[in-house]
Amino acid sequence: MHPSSEPQLSTLPRRTRGGGQSRNGEPAPVTPRRVAVEAEGNLAPDGAPAGGVGTTTTRRREGRVLRRTTGGLFVFGAIAFTAAATLLASAFDWPDILRQPAGVVLPTFVAGGTSLVWIWFATAWTYAILAVPILLLPAVLGRSADPVLRAATAIGATSVLLSLIGFLRWVFVVPPLAESYVGGDPTMRTAIDAAWTAQHQFGGALLGEHLGQLLVIGWSVTVSAIIVRTRALPRWLGVAGLAVSAIYLLNQGDILATAVPGFPVWDLAGLLGSTGWGVWVAVLGVTLLLRRNPSRVDTEDTRDAFPGTPTTTSPATADLRS
To answer: How many Å apart are CA 287 and CA 233, to the nearest integer?
Structure first.
C-alpha cells in the first residue's frame, strides 16, 4: 500500500479533558467532534482551547479601559463645557443676548475684546469633546450591531458638528462684522445689520440651535429608550434621559419664534432643558465610571472597539447587567 498524502487521524494531536495527553501519557482517542473543532480553528496546536483565561482577562481589561475612557470623556466634556458656558454668560450675557438686534450684540461683542473670542473658542471645542464618547458608547453598551443605536450615534455626532459650527461663527465670522459695524457709517451699519441677521439665522438659529438641538435630543431619547428596554445601565438613568429630553425639546419654541413671530415660547425651557441634559450626560459618564459588575461590556463586546481581539466568550461574563 502506498503512503497516503493525507494526514492520518492517528497522527493528529490529541487531548483529554485535562489537556493534550491522557493520564498514562498515551495520545487520547480522536473523536469526530474533536476533528471538527480543530478544523474550525478553536483549538490551539497542543489541543488546548484557543482564547483561554488570559484572553478573557485581556478582553476584560480592554473593556474596562474603553468603559472608563467613555465615561470620563462624558464627565469631562460636560463639566468643561459648563465652565466655559458659565464664563460666556458672565462676559457676554449669553444666551439671552442672542435674541437681541445687531445694534446691541455687535457693539457688546467688540467691547469684550479678544478675550471674548477665546471664550467662544473654548465653548465650541469643549462641547465638541462629547462627539468622542457618543461614538464610543455603542461598543461600551455591547450593542455596536444594533442598527437603531448606530443610526442614533451618527445623529448624535452630527449634532455636535452642527453646534460646533454655530459656536465657531463667533470666532471666525462675527469679529469682522462687529468691527465693521462699530466703525461704519449709517449706510454701512444697515448693510452689516442685514449680513449679521442672515448669518445669525442660518449658522445660529438653524444649524446650531434648531438642528443641533433636535438631533442631540434624538440621540439621548434613543439611548435612554435602549437603557430602559435592555437595562444595559440602571433603568432610572434611561427614564431621567427621556424626561430631560422632553423638556429640552420645548426650547424649540424659542428658536422657531425667531422665524415665526408669535410662536408659543416657554421661557424656562432653554435653561431647564439644557441644564438637565448636561447633568444627565455627566451622570451617564459617572455611571459608566462606577460600574463594577463584569458583563459583556467588559469582555465579549470589546472586540467592537478592538477588532483584533479573539471572540471566545466566557459563560460567566455573558450577562449584560449593571
So the answer is: 8
Alpha carbon of residue 262 to chain centroid: 36
pLDDT tens for the chain, 322 residues: list them: 444 444 444 444 444 444 444 445 555 555 544 444 444 344 444 444 445 556 778 888 888 999 999 999 999 999 999 999 999 999 999 999 999 999 999 999 999 999 999 999 999 999 999 999 999 999 999 999 999 999 999 999 999 999 999 999 999 999 999 999 999 999 999 999 999 999 999 999 999 999 999 999 999 999 999 999 999 999 999 999 999 999 999 999 999 999 999 999 999 999 999 999 999 999 999 999 998 753 444 434 434 443 443 333 333 333 333 3
Nearest C-alpha neighbor of 220 from the set 297, 139, 290, 274? 274
What are the grid coordinates assigned to 154, written together? Answer: 451618527
Output b/e per residue, 35-63; b: 16+ Cβ within 10 A. Answer: eeebeeeebeeebeeebeeebbebbbebb
Which residues, in sequence order, are CB contacts of 3 under 8 Å at separation 6+?
A: none
Q: Give the pTM.
A: 0.76
Q: Mind giving me the DSSP string for 195-263?
A: HHHHHIIIIIIIIIIIIHHHHHHHHHHHHHHHHHHH-SS-HHHHHHHHHHHHHHHTTHHHHHTTTSTT-
